[in-house]
């Protein structure tokens, strides 16, 4: 029996990712048009003093415009291209620029400036209007109402976000589907909580944030460290879910610190960032052969994303590397 099935434009996709009982899920396929995200020669600088309020600057006996902050390059000449049906993972150590990249794509960057380059969604610049219509962004920090239960949160968002022609029954069905998809059934009636109000666990809260965005069935799904705070089994299952969503003709872009090797295998494309520069940008399965050919083989029994994500030698060839799609 063949282990592959043809899904999208003749691409061979492993059928082991599909579970027959879940194929009927609302979220299995995205029926909208195909999307393509392109980042060309992106250069992004942050002003490390930008977040200091003006009155604190005055206490230094200087007027706000007299204080020059230190400019730091958060992203350096980045190129990438990804389209519907693919899952791209941005990996790298802490502070390498993962969140900055995702925030720039979704027009949520604060305290920095794009000094060059452009971001195109289906060939059009990523204006806030285009982003609002096409991209669901799950941020690194959860921003939820602490006093609502998981189900109330989703019902509330469904009322705000789903088209007005949806009936109450359709909305409830979608909420149930998302709860099942993200394995939130056991805590559906528990309040969400936050640092001060005890509620669901940190991992469950993370999944509620993802559920909120999945509700409106987006074409592009961007997630900043969706697996942080999850145990390895839940993290693996979550990435399998994301992989299924990508197979259903969506574009999934996520950032991860150093994923386990079984999670790494689920990615189609990988961008490895080191101090804001892409040191590898291409198919996930080609990453180890690429570094091996450059004279940096991954030691035996070592997780490639652990090894390459924290290696000092990467800084040497980060500047000259370009995208090689
Ligand atoms: N608005 C800002 N003001 C000051 N510095 C910033 C700002 N945004 C980003 N930076 C700096 O840019 C670098 C990249 O930050 P970013 O949050 O993108 O890292 P990250 O890869 O997401 O890290 P982590 O894995 O810890 O979340 C960091 O050194 C950070 O301090
Ligand atoms: Mg981050």
Automatic annotation (TrEMBL):
The protein's name in its UniProt record: ATP-binding cassette sub-family G member 8
Q: Where is the ABC transporter domain?
A: 56-300
Top-rank lineage group of the source organism: Eukaryota
Q: How does it sit in the membrane?
A: Multi-pass membrane protein
Query: Per the similarity annotation, which family is this?
Result: Belongs to the ABC transporter superfamily. ABCG family. Eye pigment precursor importer (TC 3.A.1.204) subfamily.
Organism source for this protein? Periophthalmus magnuspinnatus
Task: State one molecular function term (GO).
Answer: ABC-type transporter activity
Q: Per its UniProt record, what Pfam families does this chain match?
A: ABC2_membrane_7 (PF19055), ABC_tran (PF00005)
Localization of this protein = Apical cell membrane
Which CDD domains does this entry report, sorted A to Z? ABCG_White
The protein's matches in SMART domains, at most eight in alphabetical order, are given as:
AAA
Q: Name one GO cellular component term.
A: apical plasma membrane
Q: Which cofactor does it need?
A: Mg(2+)
Among InterPro entries, the record links this protein to: AAA+_ATPase, ABC_transporter-like_ATP-bd, ABC_transporter-like_CS, ABCG_dom, ABCG_transporters, P-loop_NTPase
Name the GO terms of the biological process aspect.
cholesterol efflux; cholesterol homeostasis
Keywords, A to Z, come to: ATP-binding, Cell membrane, Glycoprotein, Lipid transport, Magnesium, Membrane, Metal-binding, Nucleotide-binding, Translocase, Transmembrane, Transmembrane helix, Transport
């Amino acid at each position: 029996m063949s282990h592959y099935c043809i899904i999208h434009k003749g691409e061979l996709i492993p059928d082991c990712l599909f579970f027959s009982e879940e194929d009927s899920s609302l979220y299995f396929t995205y029926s909208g048009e195909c999307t393509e995200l392109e980042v060309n020669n992106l250069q992004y600088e942050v002003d490390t003093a930008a977040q200091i309020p003006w009155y604190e600057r005055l206490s230094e006996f200087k007027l706000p415009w007299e204080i020059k902050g230190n400019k730091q390059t958060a992203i350096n000449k980045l190129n990438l291209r990804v389209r519907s049906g693919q899952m791209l993972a941005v990996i790298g150590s802490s502070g390498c620029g993962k969140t900055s990249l995702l925030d720039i794509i979704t027009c949520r960057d604060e305290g920095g400036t794009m000094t060059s380059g452009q971001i195109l969604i289906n060939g059009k610049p990523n204006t806030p209007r285009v982003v609002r219509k096409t991209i669901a962004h799950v941020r690194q920090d959860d921003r939820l109402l602490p006093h609502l239960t998981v189900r109330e949160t989703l019902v509330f968002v469904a009322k705000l976000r789903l088209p007005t022609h949806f009936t109450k029954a359709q909305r409830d069905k979608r909420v149930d589907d998302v709860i099942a998809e993200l394995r939130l059934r056991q805590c559906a009636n528990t309040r969400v909580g936050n640092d001060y109000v005890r509620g669901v666990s940190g991992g469950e809260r993370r999944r509620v944030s993802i559920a909120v965005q999945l509700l409106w069935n987006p074409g592009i799904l961007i997630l900043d460290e969706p697996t942080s705070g999850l145990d390895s089994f839940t993290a693996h299952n979550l990435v399998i879910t994301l992989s299924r969503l990508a197979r259903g003709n969506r574009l999934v872009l996520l950032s991860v610190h150093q994923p386990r090797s079984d999670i790494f295998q689920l990615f189609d494309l990988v961008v490895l960032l080191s101090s804001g520069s892409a040191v590898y940008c291409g198919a996930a399965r080609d990453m180890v052969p690429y570094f091996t050919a450059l004279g940096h083989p991954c030691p035996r029994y070592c997780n490639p994303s652990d090894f390459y994500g924290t290696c000092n030698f990467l800084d040497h060839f980060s500047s000259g590397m370009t995208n090689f799609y």
